[in-house]
Amino acid sequence: MLPHRLSYYLKLKGPSFTVDTACSSSGNALHLAFKSIRCGQCETAIVASCHLTIHPGTTVQFFRLGVLSPDGIPKVFDEDANGYVRSEACTCIFLQKSKNAKRIYARIINAKSNCDGFKKGGLTFPSSQIQEELMTEVYKESNINPSKVSYVEAHGTGTQVGDPIEVNAIDRALAKKCGKQLLIGSVKSNIGHPEPASGMCSIIKVLIAMETGFIPPNKNLRRVRKGLEGIEQNRIKIVTEATELLDNDAIVGLNNFGFGGSNCHVILQRFKKQKINGGLPKDDVPRLICVSGRTNEAVLKILDDVSNKSLDEEYVGLLHQ
Questions:
Q1: Is-catalytic flag, 155?
Q2: Catalytic annotation on 320?
Q3: Structural domains of the chain ordered from first start
Q4: What is the pTM of this model?
């Protein structure tokens, strides 16, 4: 009922459904929304994800399975990594065709998903080969040479099995073909693992990097885990301090893997428009600010925000539109 309530409230008549592929739920939801717009099924899409750790039973189950960190610290890619830390998140993004967009944070070049299928290690054991195949396919389909990739936001949960499998897959699919050192990181070192909402949190981290020009650093990395060949041989570098995201049209890859074998990869391109003179208009014509809200407080909040900023004709135009 959750997506249907939103569709009811907002009067939306396109496809409306919940996606559950465990930890890759929001990545797969984004993939499906992206496909729906591309094939003409809808013009716009709302992709939302939420994870709340309300009932302790689920946490107990994962702890007994041995995938949670006993000390509650996410040590992604670290030698002492001992599991992930469950966290909460509510995230939402709006997708539309760039020609209709009033504000562009980034462009989705492609998104693709696959599934591990049968594995000798069991249902919950990730597959490095299938992850590698997914990354190889999505870049080949998009005609993007791995050397063009500026950064990869890894799924990186801080588990002893998952991190080496993913990093080695990134190494084979991208880093070995890159011709330069590939930067990687994982937002889970900063905020923990919000499970089904994790893919969307990774996207928001990438958008922050694209907006500010700096990739947020990983935390809790003391000693890089042994066996990560790409890092040991300097083909891959983990971002441990604020690092500049080069190129105004930088291409960033994003991994989102699901507990059980559902994998997703998204390619984002930076949309960096340079403001001229801070958005000041070239004329001295006064601008009339027209806003609306459901309450007086809502209107006053918007007007206060406008009055506390210097005049920016793009911002005024955005409010009017």
A1: yes
A2: no
A3: 2-270 (3.40.47.10), 278-320 (no CATH)
A4: 0.91
